């Protein structure tokens, strides 16, 4: 065979070397553990769905970016998020599920973007959502708690969970009688951190918002102080609009619950600028930032929606959920050298028979270790010299090497090498198990 | 909004209700744990690859079944197995990887089959492979050990790992001077369990194999006895063919190692009928059967290959690996009612505040439980009555419910309900944590 295909991986997909993969999987495991600590149930839906299902709510970027194709009689697409399949799932199984239905899902999603640095065509999302016919606002606070728990356990950087409430924004715009322009205004507000107050004011002027209203908007979104001070200031604005008051009441309750959950002040903030692009959010919205790396953008976002399943069923469900875009986050952290090099290994010990004659004792030792719950790699290339064998352990961060030669077999011991301390000592297998446990 | 899309899931994909999903995930976790106990490293490659890469070795069923489509300038496909992406990965990163490279991968693969019962278009494979420039036969024995460990921990049914060696078959055909027909002969041999010896003989006659050679083939593939008896009988056939002798030596070594690994006789068998369809296997081949459900076919298969990366690189790698088709296995077990209904839950306890006024104490209790490592669900719908709340716990197999009302708050205790024993008792939070731990 002489014709070769140049081996390569599609741009915009993530493929890692083993040590990075271990690190990535550890992050997945921590997120999963955090989500499960709140009793959320696992879900795994197909990546491949009927296009009609995924595009029930069609239009915009989604239709342009989706991977869609025909096979046989089927018009198929790759899912572009985990939210639409969740809505489908709840609609199908509504009579079998117990509500409130709390689920988490960690899986790959697909978007046919032009690949750029830290923009992916295939990437992991880690979602939690809770859904029910009627959902108390305490669930919105629980989401803050979940984000807090997940990022505490990931231990990546100092972070702040920022929340806002769409009703407050909508109510304000109604009160100022500029509700007809609210989508455009929200889009402009959302950019204030990037473009600054001045440029934001100019854009609002172009939209023909009156100077008076622009002042009110700025006064509003720039309200400062502690969480309780912000709530007091919002109350004192005395905006006589039902939607505004309802949103403010929700925000106040969430703030109370968040305190009761024991989440530190420094990790939680009301940020009235946050609008979130997605138009299905109807109440609370979340964004999460690393305090020292705000340029990364939000690392965990979400919100409350009133009728996610509307394209599939008449039954109305309220829901609230958040999502971590893990592939992007991992790539960004790696790019910025913020990932601590993993010193974790899969194997705790490498068993090395000196030659083929030592295999019997080595195999038995490996079995005893594994039976004791110790992950044990067995070095199997008898031709290689000891240097190569130790290098193998070293490159994989395996902390111990257990050498078995003729002498060891005669004495019924093993030579245990501590790779970090560069020490070695003879041990019985029983002692070995105790040390490695 | 009035137009609804009927919510449904693509035929040939698996979507489970939460209790089954928990069971499925437990199986994945057990397999992962078994693979990691041998020190195998995790790998995650993209599902979406360039068609040129996946179809480097084109032809046959693969090309017909692959999901292939264009997007922008790219000709893309969904991977149809984990072996081809593994070969690509090793070819790309050969200078960064440490050899022997031992990796496991658990992920979804895609085949555009007509969906039938227990045939899937999207399904999980759970693969382990070890690859190196030169790979000692001890690795072939380790694969038996891995299969044994995985299926012991899955604890589904009595199983037998059957192995054979392609070289023995090839050598025999060379010695009988029928090597030109070996592909067809192997295909016929492979069917003996389905069609019986008589029909197999007839098919061989049609292929114009001489009666004498048919007798030899039958004598050979029907050799019986213990593993060591089979090896003795094969030796006593005195087939003067290098390939045959080499294969027999390998088989003998594997049998020796398998004993040294402590794998019970009843779980391991030499089965000379096994040929395996895939033509890249060059030595050991594996199939695994449930003793009482042989009709399920092999639940874990694999083999040794000499040059998996030949389409991508000139460097030659030897490898050996096995694969569990988990989605199919799960569906079959479910179909046959062989899956024990999971009594596992994600949450260990459900915290139930009697009404909104009890939320403060409930939230603090939930936090203390979670901080102690106890998965804790919080019931948040204050409107529902106690019956609905208990039903929620019951349906999800949550073993304990922790009720918090005015009385409990005054006494600074909680009422702990044991859902299985239908008993309840007041406990302090400290006692509660001790009981749930």
How many E-type strands of chain A? 16
- Profile the largest sheet of chain A: 8 strands, mixed
The unreliable regions of chain A are none
Cα-atom radius of gyration of chain A:
28 Å
Give me the CATH superfamily of the largest domain in chain A: Bira Bifunctional Protein, Domain 2
Shape of chain A: elongated
Task: Give an overview of the whole structure.
- Chain A is built from 16 helices and 16 strands.
- Chain A is 41% helix and 21% strand.
- The relative contact order of chain A is 0.12.
- The longest helix of chain A has 20 residues, at 18-37.
- Chain A is α+β, with helices and mostly antiparallel strands and 437 residues long.
- In chain A, helix 6 packs antiparallel against helix 11 (242-260).
- The first copy, chain A, starts with 17 loop residues before the first helix and ends with a helix.
- In chain A, the strands form three sheets. An eight-stranded mixed β-sheet of chain A has the order 1-5-6-11-10-9-7-8. In chain A, strands 13-12-14-15-16 form a five-stranded mixed β-sheet, sandwiched between helices.
- In chain A, strand 12 (349-353), helix 13 (359-371) and strand 13 form a beta-alpha-beta unit.
- The first copy, chain A, has three domains: 12-157 and 292-344, BirA Bifunctional Protein, domain 2; 168-266, no CATH class; 349-436, 3-Layer(aba) Sandwich (Rossmann fold), CATH 3.40.50.
- At the A-B interface, helix 1, strand 1, strand 2, strand 3 and strand 4 of A face helix 1, strand 1, strand 2, strand 3 and strand 4 of B.
